[in-house]
Amino acid sequence: GAAKDLGREQGSEVIKTNLEDKNIFKDLFEEHGDDPEAILEDLQGGFMDSFTQYAKYSNHILPELRSLAGFEDDTGVGTYTYARSEGVVFDLDEIADKFWEGVFEVMEEDMEKHYKKYKELSTQEE
Fold first, then answer.
1. What distance separates the 2 farthest-apart alpha carbons in the chain?
2. Looking at residue 20, what is its pLDDT?
3. What is the dihedral of CA 42, 102, 100, 65, to 10 degrees?
4. Per residue in 22-54, pLDDT tens?
5. What's the pLDDT at 8?
6. Are 92 and 64 in contact (CB under 8 A)?
7. Are 36 and 96 contacting, i.e. CB atoms less than 8 angstroms apart?
8. Other CB atoms closer than 10 Å to residue 37's CB: what's the count?
9. CA distance 106 to 112
10. pLDDT tens for each residue of 60-104
């Protein structure tokens, strides 16, 4: 759906701007060794924590997710709790889950690509 597509788009953008420039994968692979799941968990947890602090998330992503959940107006709907306490019925949680699913899918695909390269390089070095 639209939320998952938005997540995949954001995930790709973040990978292009942040992950490609750094040796983040090399460090994670060295820290976690042969455990791609731990690498992914580390990467996703750190990303989710920092991404939700960005103005872009508050100003662009959340309003778009709220719109997908059926809100016509973003005013006064600062948090999920506020919306619930006002008796608004919506499935923003589900839509947000789809968004993160899209983000994490792209990150997993990218991590697997880097992991494969890393394994090939470390095998050559032995």
1. 62
2. 60
3. 160
4. 567 778 888 887 788 888 888 888 888 888 888
5. 92
6. no
7. no
8. 9
9. 10
10. 888 888 778 776 665 544 445 445 545 555 567 788 889 999 999
Question: Residue 78 has which token pair?
Answer: 């600062």
Report the 3 state secondary structure along the chain.
CHHHHHHHHHHHHHHHHHHCCCCHHHHHHHHHCCCHHHHHHHHHHHHHHHHCCCHHHHHHHHHHHHHHCCCCCCCCCCCHHHHHHCCCCCCHHHHHHHHHHHHHHHHHHHHHHHHHHHHHHHHHHC
Amino acid identity at 81:
T
Q: Residue with structure tokens 């809100």? A: 71
| Confidence (pTM) | 0.73
| Residues, the chain | 126
